[in-house]
Fold each of these.
Amino acid sequence: MSNDKSFESGKLSCNVQAIATVVHEAAQSCQGDTVALLALLRQLEQLHREIRDGAFQKSLPDNRRQLYSLLKDIESEGGWPYIERMKLQAFLANFPQEATEENSDLKNSDDVLISDRSFEW
């Protein structure tokens, strides 16, 4: 790898680390505020989508050698990036049992949502 490539790679690594630090600090400052944390997660998902659909799509390889190199990198570095959404069952597992028993209408609607495997967060 040339010095320019090495420098750019190091600069990217520093930038990514700085972003991670800022995101961790934002999450810490929102601790206990579910709505603020949800807004942070939505923003991260939006950024992921913008990068994937914009700059990443435009940078995809246009020949087999580059494609092979990219696929090899994806395989060796941990796979395809994915922002997983919380499953509704996991979300409701933290919900107090008494609250669902107090309102049978809510409990019935929870059962319907839980049984619908296509619905996920």
Amino acid sequence: MAEPEGQRRPRLRPAPLIFEPAEAAADPEHFFDLESVEDPRELLSRATELTHAFRAAADRSVEFQAIAAAQLADPRRFDRLTAADIAERAEWTEDYAKKMVEFGRDLLRGNAEPTA
């Protein structure tokens, strides 16, 4: 739900994700070096940072999906897609695609509150 203009909360920035080298990522037991952390306090802290970062990344990705859906459905485009076409491409239901198009339109107009 959008808040009044003067009451918007600043977007929180999560801890940056640390990208792993390909050889580390190939090891299924290796996950952002968490397996090597022995202190449970430090492990909880770092795992929590990663959880927040992944959630924020997922929320932001959804916003970009919505913007792209709205742009693809724009009636001014000669090559616009229907909600069914967008749903098929994104592996969504058609109803969800329609909601995402509307959410994207709201984001593009600046009427939707971005996720924190």
Amino acid sequence: MTRAEAVDTPDDGAPETPDRLRRRASRLLSQLTTRSDRLINEGLARADARKWHYAVLASLQECGPGSQATLSRRSGIYRSDMVSVLNELTERQLVERAPDPDDQRRNIITISPQGRRHLRRLDKVLDDLHDELLAPLNPAERDQFVQLLTRLLDHHSRTS
């Protein structure tokens, strides 16, 4: 149990969170993010993967090959962390590195056939994990929830 969860759970196990806290979207998003991260990280670990692996493979599959800097922008992974993620994926033969013909100082990263298969497997793992995360919502509510989160994130990404 995290420290934040402990604050919300008294000794008898019954939640006693004040209503004014339960009405704060920022607090609810933060708590849901904590639970979501734990669920996704543990689920991907059981599949011998990390969320950054998925982000890079999905980016390569959907948007095509790219440099480390391009992949960093697409996936939201810091450039300083991208090298270690790509090293892990290369060691597993999930991506291939090749010199950029236009700039020999740079590598172009491409998803491998094995990486495509692994990505399909991770899609299934994440589908199951999201079913667990969003279990209380029906399919229409899930779609609406994702649309609303996307709209909020897009708005705040543009303004920051």
